């Protein structure tokens, strides 16, 4: 797990800071959502989701995006595994 560091003015817009914020947000989401399976069949509000932000997830429910965000966090923390 990455340790969150205090930001300096210089680091505010750095890639590392952005990654750290994303990981923190996903960790917060993971701790907040008590029963992720209840997100299945909860449709997304299509007005909020930009049509240009398509992913490999075609189901279009909240659970799919929950899993996608957790997967991205893991890849960022541990690197992408090549098979």
Automatic annotation (TrEMBL):
Transit peptide: present as a keyword of the record? no
* Superkingdom of origin: Eukaryota
Query: Which coarse location class describes where this protein primarily resides?
Result: cytoplasm
Instruction: Tell me the InterPro entries matching this sequence.
Output: Lipogen_MT_Stabilize_sf, Spot_14
Q: Which UniProt keywords apply?
A: Cytoplasm, Nucleus
Among Gene3D superfamilies, the record links this protein to: 6.10.140.1610
Family annotation (Pfam families): Spot_14
Q: Any idea where this protein resides?
A: Cytoplasm; Nucleus
Q: Which Gene Ontology terms describe the biological processes this protein takes part in?
A: regulation of lipid biosynthetic process
Listed under GO cellular component are: cytosol; nucleus
Q: Which PANTHER family match?
A: MID1-INTERACTING PROTEIN 1-B-RELATED, SPOT14 FAMILY MEMBER
The similarity comment for this entry is: Belongs to the SPOT14 family.
Q: What is this protein called in UniProt?
A: Putative mid1-interacting protein 1
Q: Which organism is it from?
A: Scophthalmus maximus
């Amino acid at each position: 797990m990455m340790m969150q560091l205090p930001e300096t003015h210089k680091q505010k817009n750095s890639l590392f800071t952005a990654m750290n914020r994303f990981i923190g947000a996903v960790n917060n989401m993971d701790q907040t959502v008590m029963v992720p399976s209840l997100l299945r069949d909860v449709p997304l509000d299509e007005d909020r989701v930009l049509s240009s932000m398509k992913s490999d997830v075609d189901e279009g429910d909240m659970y799919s995006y929950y899993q996608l965000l957790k997967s991205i966090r893991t890849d960022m923390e541990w690197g992408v595994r090549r098979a």
